[in-house]
Amino acid sequence: MLTTLFWLALTAVGVFSAGHALLNKLDPRAALGWIVACLAVPGFGPLIYWVFGVNRIRIRARDWQSRGEGLPWVDPEVCSWSADFSASLPFRQENFSALLSLSDHVTRRPLIPGNRIDILHNGEQAYPRMLAAIREARETVHLSTYIFETNQRGRDFIAALMEAAERGVEVRVLVDALGEHYSFPTARRLLRGSKVRVAQFLPPSLPRHGIYFNLRNHRKLLIVDDLLGFTGGMNIGDRHLAARTDNPQRVIDIHFQVQGPVVAHLQEAFMEDWGFCTKERLMMNRLPQPLEDGNAFCRGISSGPNEDYENLHWIIVGALNSARKRICIMTPYFIPNRALISAINAAGLRGVKVDILLPSKNNLPFVAWASEAYFWELVRYGINIYLMPPPFVHSKLLLVDDEFALIGSANVDPRSIRLNFEFCLEVYSRPLVAELLAHCDEIIPRSHHLSLAEIDGRSLPRRLYTCFFKLFSPYL
To answer: Most buried among 22, 127, 341, 359, using CB within 10 Å?
Structure first.
């Protein structure tokens, strides 16, 4: 009798869990997988589902935001096309007005003018400016990073942060609980005992958030005194010193210095993450004002499993659909889903020049193999794929025509689009886009242009193992 009741209870839990997955999992493949697991493996299947498959991050973060902590949400101001302003305001052009309307609806922040974005190539340009900003800070320093190495460059940052805290600056450092373990001792350990406040993002914990290996904070943010910001794709460590030819792990990367009112968007993103991790409510001391020489219209985009929409994915698709002349994508990890492939190919078929720049040698070979499996269905429609020579290029750019740039921490892969917490800037600025396009055009002649004949000529074993890794694309 007890055995029968036990199995009936397990069956009831399995059916309930399967029903929960059916109602709440938007991806039918994920829903089917969890339903099978819950019903086929009584007891253990539902346990794994409730531990790993239920997204508590959205619930916790949305509850925190709904209480009004951080900056207030902004009702979007939808901007339709205007012939009068299409020449002076790029986002008022007919094709970009639809993208602007989309971004207004799926993001929580407005597009604002009066910003200046400076391009910083590699650690040689980015780190001195970031360290100088920390050393000159008067009130607050907020740093969020995925990887914080503790080699020489990392220890330079640790020393600067500790010195700022010692002189009375409020210094907060947020490190990802997985990313911090790329080097030992960890930065958090070296900062222990100092006046720097350090928090981990989503450490494994069953009582609090659960155990998540995928939902990582991939954002790179540095905000000083509410007025100066840095963001992009660059972590902290010696590997970003590209001039160090003696370092086999060196990488090429682009970071950005940000000034103007959009710095408040960087600060808001940090405050939300800090509040989520520590339950501490932070307020800005001031709102940065538009710069007289600020020629960039910008919007900060926070994306992640806590947001209502897959906003980053929608904005990328919207930007691709807005192109009339040229699209340039530079990313280290390129695993597009079907919607992105369709948008890229549709742009190529309507006459847009599409250039995709990828590393010729990836630091994650299995990602490169999965990526290669998509090349044929892009190149056959006239898409240009260029393999950039070593060292490994970690830069992340999406450029559309002469006006639009999407810059920040996100790659074009499922991890960035669906799983990670990312921060990007949507930028309308002809000078910035021109400079970034010139950077891409300088790399293209030195890169290998893949031809359809070359892709078709791959050996059968190579095609088999690249397609095998393509099966795991949603999880890479």
So the answer is: 359
Asked if residue 89 belongs to a domain, the reply is no
* H helix or E strand, kind and range, residue 65: helix 56-66
Instruction: Report the distance separating Cα 407 and Cα 396, nearest Å.
Output: 6
pLDDT (tens digit, 9 = 90+) per residue, 193-230? Answer: 999 999 999 886 555 555 556 678 999 999 999 999 99
Tell me the pLDDT tens digit for each residue of 431-463.
999 999 999 999 999 999 999 999 999 999 999
Q: Are residues 261 and 355 in the same domain?
A: no
Q: What pLDDT does residue 436 have?
A: 98
In the set 104, 226, 355, 401, the catalytic residue is 401
Q: Which residues of the chain have pLDDT under 70?
A: 1-2, 29, 51-52, 55-88, 204-214, 475-476
Identify the active-site residue in 220, 240, 313, 439: 220
Q: Is 361 marked active-site?
A: no
Residue 442 is inside which H or E element, if any? Answer: helix 430-443
- The answer as to whether 211 is a domain residue is yes
Please confirm, yes or no, whether 279 is among the known catalytic residues: no
Q: What's this model's pTM, rounded to 2 decimal places? A: 0.88
Task: Show the domain range for 449.
Answer: 311-475
Q: Are both 419 and 442 inside the same structural domain? A: yes
Predicted confidence at residue 383, as pLDDT, reads: 98
Catalytic residue among 20, 25, 142, 218: 218
CA distances from residue 434 to 212, 261, 440 in whole angstroms, order as listed: 40, 22, 10
Instruction: Report helix angle 28-40 to 2-24, nearest 10.
Output: 180
Instruction: Tell me the C-alpha distance between 433 and 219, whole Å.
Output: 22
Annotated active-site residue in 176, 225, 226, 273: 225
Residues 281 and 329 in one domain: no
The two three-digit tokens of residue 117, written as one number: 């974005």
Active-site hit among 142, 255, 313, 396: 396
Classify residue 28 as exposed, middle or buried by CB count within 10 Å of its CB (0-12, 13-18, 19+).
exposed
Catalytic residue chosen out of the listed positions 255, 313, 394, 439: 394
Chain-centre distance of CA 97, in angstroms? 24
Backbone Cα Rg of the chain: 23
Told to judge if 195 belongs to the known catalytic residues of this protein, a careful annotator would answer no
Residues 146 and 15 in one domain: no
